[in-house]
Specification:
The protein is mainly α and about 170 residues long. It folds into two domains: about 70 residues, Winged helix-like DNA-binding domain superfamily/Winged helix DNA-binding domain (Arc Repressor Mutant, subunit A); about 80 residues, Diphtheria Toxin Repressor, domain 2, CATH 1.10.60. It has seven helices and four strands, in the order H-H-H-E-E-H-H-H-E-E-H. The protein has a two-stranded antiparallel sheet. Strands 3-4 form a two-stranded antiparallel sheet. The chain starts with 8 loop residues before the first helix and ends in an 8-residue tail after the last helix.
Length: about 170
């Protein structure tokens, strides 16, 4: 996964597009990628050649494009970051879905994994608040819907059972 740090934002977009198209159709074609990313076919060809040389995709001209095992791992991480950021923007900050998707697409390339993981944890906390949730209120910041204080929230969260794993 160290290779992911060396990819450009554009290359990550191509991997993400191939991932989503492949999930729908089992494999991608250059014209599918061109349409999805709204770029010219010649741009797609150049990007696919480069990604093919990295070993992240299986590429041959005029053939179907698939992710290699390593490419799938990298693409899944990109998709995970995108979804986590989008989820945070929509469910925690109350951003409209379309705007959140576009912002997440830009942010996914630059927000470090550790920060994305913290955003995920915070979003989980907000969604699990046993006092009815925390909301964003017209730019005035967060507040608990039921008026509990920070101390109450800490107390009620400590009483809130953690989800247990199946191990």
């Amino acid at each position: 996964m160290g290779r992911q740090n060396k990819l450009t934002a554009s290359q990550e977009d191509y991997l993400e597009a191939i991932y989503h198209i492949s999930a729908e159709k089992m494999a991608a074609r250059a014209k599918d990628i061109s349409r999805r990313l709204d770029v010219r076919a010649s741009s797609v060809t150049g990007a696919l050649r480069t990604l093919g040389k990295t070993g992240l995709i299986n590429y041959a001209p005029y053939d179907l494009i698939t992710l290699t095992d390593e490419g799938r791992v990298v693409a899944e991480e990109i998709v995970r970051r995108h979804q986590a950021l989008e989820h945070f923007l929509v469910n925690v900050l109350g951003v409209e879905a379309k705007e959140a998707d576009e912002a997440a697409c830009r942010m996914e390339h630059s927000v470090p994994k550790a920060i994305v993981n913290r955003l995920i944890k915070y979003a989980e906390y907000v969604e699990k608040c046993p006092k009815g949730g925390i909301t964003w209120n017209s730019g005035f910041g967060y507040y608990c819907k039921h008026g509990c204080t920070e101390e109450d929230c800490r107390h009620c969260v400590s009483d809130f059972p953690e989800e247990k794993s199946d191990t």
